[in-house]
Amino acid sequence: MPVASTSPVAAPRGTLVLLGGGDDDPMLALLASLLPDPSAAIEVLTTATRRQPARTAAAYAHAWHQLGCPHVRHLRVDETHPADDPATLARLRKASLVFMSGGDQERLTDFLLNTEFLTILKEKYQDEDTFILAGTSAGAAAMAESMLVEGYGWRSLLGGRAEAKPGLGLLPGVLLDQHFAERGRYSRLLNAVLSQPTLLGIGLSEETGLIVRPSEPVEVFGEEVVVIIDAAAATHNNLPGLPDGNFISGHGLQLHLLVAGHHLNLSNRQVKA
């Protein structure tokens, strides 16, 4: 009987940049510096932005023009612009940078999951060493295997009061939240990682993010703190299965606070200053 292959999947050759929201001008400058050529094609994907997406895209285009990047276009995927429109797919294939704006991360999964668009996006990130995929706020959260979509304040320490949903899967093994410190989302991330302890919980504060380069540890950049919660080795966990409204409990969780220049190895979950 033939033995199934156990060869590991090759690490993506592209670069992933995630920001927790807030002022994203420094992130745009970072992305401009990472482009292989300032004249490379940039596509602003505004799927998460429900209101005035064209205005949002125009603002990003203006910012990049100021940084010397002239070729910025608005890539619309929404209720009236199908993800798998041939013209949209053609532009996606030519893009050097795809930037996902903020808003509602569930719109990204609603419109992109199970599409050829997402297949092409994943292939570009996997295979093209000059490709950059970036997102801020909701655009960052949706990149992970799982994303937080519900949970507020102390009530998130109760069973059934925090909710995570599948993301786009571009950052596997990770459960991601954004606007983390500013909106007091510690409780809901704790709830989520106890519910899915095989996933590494990451909370991105505003003006703070991660650079995921090929075959390198993840690097933190920005002004504030990235919170890492690891429940994989917890010695006690009353989730899942806790009745709604009862308080969650967990022992032996690992907590890391990372700032600019610190690194995280996603394969072994080790951190380094």
What does this structure look like?
Helix content is 25%, strand content 27%. With 273 residues, it is an alpha/beta fold. The protein folds into 2 domains: 12-142, Rossmann fold, CATH 3.40.50; 145-208 and 215-273, Rossmann fold, CATH 3.40.50. Helix 3 (86-94) packs parallel to helix 5. The longest helix is centred in the first third of the chain and has 14 residues, at 53-66. It is globular and about 55 Å long. Residues 1-7 have low confidence and may be disordered.
Comma- or semicolon-separated keywords:
globular; 2 domains; six-stranded mixed beta sheet; single chain; Rossmann fold; alpha/beta; 273 residues; nine-stranded mixed beta sheet; 17 strands; disordered N terminus; 7 helices
CATH topology descriptor of the largest domain: Rossmann fold
Tell how many strands the DSSP assignment holds.
17
The strand order across the widest sheet is: 3-2-4-5-1-10-11-16-17
Determine the mean pLDDT.
95
Looking at the overall shape, the CATH architecture of the largest domain is 3-Layer(aba) Sandwich
**Multimeric state:** single chain
The parts where pLDDT drops under 50 for at least 5 residues are: 1-7
